[in-house]
Amino acid sequence: MLIPFNLIPYRATPNSVTGHSPFFLLHGREMEIPNNDNLKARISSENPSQKRSLENLEASLNLAYKLVAKANRKSHQNNKRLYDRRVKVRDFKENDLVYLYNPAKKPGLTRKFHKPWTGPFKIVK
User: Fold this and answer.
1) Could you give the CA distance from residue 5 to residue 15 in angstroms, rounded to a whole number?
2) Separation between Cα atoms, residue 64 and residue 71, nearest integer Å
3) How far apart are CA 96 and CA 122, in angstroms?
4) Which residue of 44, 75, 96, 97 lies most exposed, with the fewest beta carbons within 10 A?
């Protein structure tokens, strides 16, 4: 029963990668957090046209999607840089003995007794 109230902070908090909250990416506007001022009855004197509201929403979402795509590319580049920092370059020659890593296990066998490394194999070419 309290789960929706616990999800409000998550949905309103900007993501570190995208820079936008999940609510903004879904609705194109920031969430209004409930407080005492929001609980009072309000009567709007002007009624914005639905077409104008849809145009604003579309523009906001297009901008948000572009920013998210840019942030994802930047995040991917950062992850690649972190991965490349730890990777070891291997140089194999003919007649070297190597082991083959095959993590796929046969159906019906448990992972506990599966040996993912097989070999040694000799490099022919």
Assistant:
1) 19
2) 10
3) 6
4) 44
Nearest C-alpha neighbor of 19 from the set 78, 94, 74? 74
Contacts of residue 122, Cβ cutoff 8 Å, sequence gap at least 6 = 95, 96, 97
The secondary structure element, H or E, covering residue 97 is strand 97-101
Cβ neighbors of 74 (< 8 A, separation 6 or more) are none
**pTM for the full model?**
0.39
Q: Mean pLDDT for each consecutive 10-residue tract of the chain (125 residues)?
A: 80 84 86 68 62 83 88 86 87 93 85 87 92
Taken in order 28, 30, 31, 32, is the CA torsion positive or negative? negative
- The two three-digit tokens of residue 48, written as one number: 């914005």
Q: Write down the pLDDT at residue 123.
A: 93
State the burial class of residue 24 (Cβ atoms within 10 Å of its Cβ: 0-12, 13-18, 19+).
buried
